[in-house]
Amino acid sequence: MNKLSCGEYQKLIGDRIKQYRVNAGVSQKDLENESGVSVRSISRLEQGSSIQLESLIKILSALNLQSNIDLLIPDQTKRPSFYLNENDKPKQRVRKKQETTGAFKWGDEE
Known about the structure:
Layout: H1 6-23, H2 28-35, H3 39-46, H4 53-62, H5 69-72
């Protein structure tokens, strides 16, 4: 995997945020109203310039992307098995529930 410079990462993040914003049909002015970050800062971010982390977080929140931070940096306090859901396992067979009569009897009892 090739390593990118800090500026290349900024450009990549800016391009992706711009793509997401445009595809969502949100103008820079609308994003400014929703996030409280100036159009100038939004434009700088989309051009690959650095902006304050607080502004970036506000923009991500306004675009409903804040939950994607777990994809970028997974929570290390949770073990990998935490992400497995037992309900996701494919069923092997179907068992019908037997109705109980209430009284338990051993096999040799009648």
